């Protein structure tokens, strides 16, 4: 047990932890006693060190330790390390702290496990289109198990920002535009990452980000200003964060943006009044990468010392990679600009999570090389990734039923476009330690699926992903003319989505749309498969092509999952969680908007002194909730068990859902409600429930929802959440723009 002796706490510290005899307020538990006992043994420098996160360089063989913080590790002055991974690399870093520091406090290792660690799942925006909370909980659990096997114990996910502007590259990390669905998904992902026991070596500490309203950055430009009313902030952008706080998330990250003139990292109203005061959040609050330093260029702090003071006074516990606390916090304390109590409270919260993770029981508990080898990329994980990827795919258009490509038919298919054989982009951005070279291409997936059938493929790239080079068009046209149907695979290079990947033009990049025009001119039916990290402007494509499939970035098993859908082995069931605009001029465009005093009629254009455009309709190209199937569904008129209810009561509403097509399939049945007149204006529709059901061809099921005060309550002008008496309209629908058969009820 030589290794155990190297990290064992000193006898004095062990005694203090075990027999400290500390007492505290209601809710004060054994972990709190251990934390407070250890805190008494710590010097100020050791405390400030716990509040500091360093970033290490890394390589495929493991973490590389820069000399600039080796000294701090040995002095016990590093609380967390970012971007160190692999068991071998993390063992090297952890041992520096445990073998040389005075108190041998273990280091917390953080990594961006956003949609998978080694097995890469679809990007979160794509995964959200499954509308399957259990699947999303499971993918997060698999990601956690792999990350933990790789030595990681803290993930900077989920990203729960509500996103209404597809120009912003980070829409790929979230769950779209709706606060109700976004809150449910946020909770599910936290539960998946953290499980029921943080002490398990199959779970990791989750970190909800970015608090708050980062998804509303002006002009969709990363890091940009956000400005909104407190009412919109609380009704639209905060609910997913609150859901994760209620789910017990262990940490939360401040956003880069300002709100109302105060950057989030210095925003005491957000961090202390709302998050800690109103919601009772007791976990770690960490800045984003150099977020504290950036208070200086924001113009709210004269220098980094003042920036650190403002961050700590706002409630930020840990400084991510900026070293501001390390450099200046002692001096700020001496000058009385921060208090020792603030420092102690921050350190308590950090140490508590380390205890809950079991790091004090065994700092090397995550560092098992055998488990790492046996866990990463397990076949059952890849199988689940394939299932989720297929379910995330959204069939946007399918005129004439050109899809699926029936494996029993005889035809020649031209596979054209830069995404046919593209491999590197399939995982998308923020793809953990996934190996891009291992991802299955579309060509590989289709070739494997149709092997032994009478379907023949011919291929031509035609163009690349980013440039205007048209030299390959002739080859693509030749392939198209030899084929019965063209499958064009196009989209964005993965670097065109993610952080600092904002776009002002969200059409297909480079020569891709021109290539589509050329293919369409051959007269052959064209199926477009889009691989992207955001909703694109597909207005020309929708007007001219027979079918469009949004595959997002599907991850490790991309080609196999797309083949499952194109072949009909899986009948697509994905539904959009973010609207697709017709033009960047519509942005932001989202379903749950407010009416104006002069609302336009649907489809209206021209000068009518209404709130509309001269040249384009208000409605998106594809609305929230849209997604087709290879079969068809019908939903009957809703039936209510009563048309009025009052305080403490509820209404039950049901509808018959029929599969009227020729295939088995799944459909997401969506409940929308509108408050027709209230003391504060309400959206034209709000999602308030959904059910995803499977129906055999010809089958009919009855779907039932309950409507209580919770579904109709809202924040009034005094910021009190309550229902108001009046008339309400509801829809049980297949998408947010399905206005077919509304029903009316009243609340008294």
Description:
With 748 residues, the chain is of the alpha/beta class. Helix content is 30%, strand content 18%. The chain has 24 helices and 29 strands. Strands 13-18-17-16-14-15 form a 6-stranded mixed β-sheet, sandwiched between helices. It has a 5-stranded parallel β-sheet with strand order 6-5-4-1-12. The chain has a 5-stranded mixed β-sheet with strand order 21-29-28-23-24, with no helix packed on it. It is globular, with a radius of gyration of 27 Å. The model is unreliable at 1-7, 10-23 and 59-65 (pLDDT under 50).
Question: Could you name the key traits of this structure?
Answer:
748 residues, alpha/beta, six-stranded mixed β-sheet, five-stranded parallel β-sheet, 24 helices, 29 strands, 18% strand, disordered N terminus
Specify the biggest β-sheet: 6 strands, mixed
Summed over residues and divided by their number, the pLDDT gives a mean of: 95
**Cα gyration radius (Å):** 27 Å
Shape: globular
Across the major sheet, the strand order is: 13-18-17-16-14-15
- The total of beta strands comes to 29
The low-confidence parts are 1-7, 10-23, 59-65
How many individual helices? 24
Class of secondary structure makeup: alpha/beta
First and last CA, distance = 71 Å
Percent of residues in β-strands = 15-25%
Helix content: 25-40%
